[in-house]
Amino acid sequence: MPPPDIDLTVYPDECDAFGHLNQASFLTLFERARWEMLARGPGMDVFTRNGAWPAVRKTVIDYHAAAFPGDVLRFQQALTHHGRTSFTMRQTARRVRDDILIATAEFVFVCVDREGKPTPIPTELTDYLNAARGRPGPGALQRFTVNGVSLAVDIRGEGPAVLLVHGYPYDHTIWAAQMAALDGYQRIAPDLRGMGQSDAPDLGYSMATYAADLAALLDALGVGEVVLCGLSMGGYIAFEFLRSWRRRVRGLVLMDTRAEADSPEGRRARDVAAALARERGAAAIADEMLPKSLTPVTLARSPDMAERVRSMMAATPVAGIVGALGAMRDRADSTALLPTLGDIPTLIVVGELDQPTPPDRAEAMAEAIPGARRITIPGVGHLSPVEGADRVTQALLEFLRSL
Length: 403
Ligand code: MLT
Fold this sequence. Notes:
Elements: E1 6-9, H1 23-39, H2 46-49, E2 53-63, E3 72-82, E4 86-95, E5 101-112, H3 123-134, E6 142-146, E7 149-156, E8 161-165, H4 176-181, E9 186-190, H5 207-221, E10 226-231, H6 233-245, E11 249-255, H7 264-280, H8 282-293, H9 296-301, H10 303-314, H11 318-329, E12 346-351, H12 359-368, E13 373-377, H13 384-387, H14 389-402
Parallel strand pairs: 8-9, 8-10, 10-11, 11-12, 12-13
Antiparallel strand pairs: 1-3, 2-5, 3-4, 4-5, 6-7, 7-9
Helix pairs in contact: 5-6, 7-8, 7-11, 8-10
The structure holds D-malate (MLT).
Residues 167-168, 232-233, 328, 356 line the site of D-malate.
């Protein structure tokens, strides 16, 4: 059983003069949600029983939207990392009425004894939280620790393996339609480190690290070869993967991506975006990225899809955003790699209206990779597997069947 969701009501005395839930009360609600969860699991006295007290060592909270008296907030919480004496909990609070993301938080704890010395985490606690994350139900994510980081991974089906790598600042859910439809293949869609439900360490982000995480994940799954499909930053990671693990790539799909490194202005823009994320949180990045991810038509006519994408981005840990921006800023140019890929069947997919990685970038890659196929999805922007879900799935299926 996963840890239960905890619903807590916002009261007037927890709000400021404008009626917004105030910061101190928010901290209390996050804490109350954790104790409630323990009360329904190993017991609220799990720490005192074991002579270990969880002292908070670090707190990062991103506030995404205001909450008001009477709002019921649903807290979801997961153990994202643990060592011998310290552990990290990730919590999200959504308003039940409209499912709007109100805040996300990460708390790092160290267990201490009465003298304040670090002491092992009670195994009852880790057993409870690990059992919840290790036993996937239908559609649930599995967790794998690779290179010291716990990755959340959606794995479905049997057959030749297809590894679906999302871009920035998204998560594995951008592949929802393809994960559901690619029957006859083992579909593997991880959340990259720092994004989705994977661990978000403060440091250690580069294209080489993301690629090494993927290789280690395939090792953990006992998967040798894959068809490697990367969207945007996922494509940058695919190029890095090819540099070190080319023999594992049975086929390549480059989706809404490009081979060039960032220009000097592009690099500067990464630093500006990282400062924005540090100062104003993931919600500010989500606001900036939404019109680059979906077309104006989708934004106007499909508010549900727009809100899903916005809240996925807004839930990305700031450490993961800053890490990805640095990794993209410092990535190598991959154009020289393209002419060497003639022995790997390659499909290039691009949304006709993609702004960050427009169709001329796809065309340039298709011309440079001997034998590459290219498909442009009409009326679709950067997030083509979401906006053009059926057509992208169809293109992938045809490509996979041709291998
Ligand atoms: C992505 O979707 O991964 C990003 O837009 C890539 C980028 O910013 O270069």
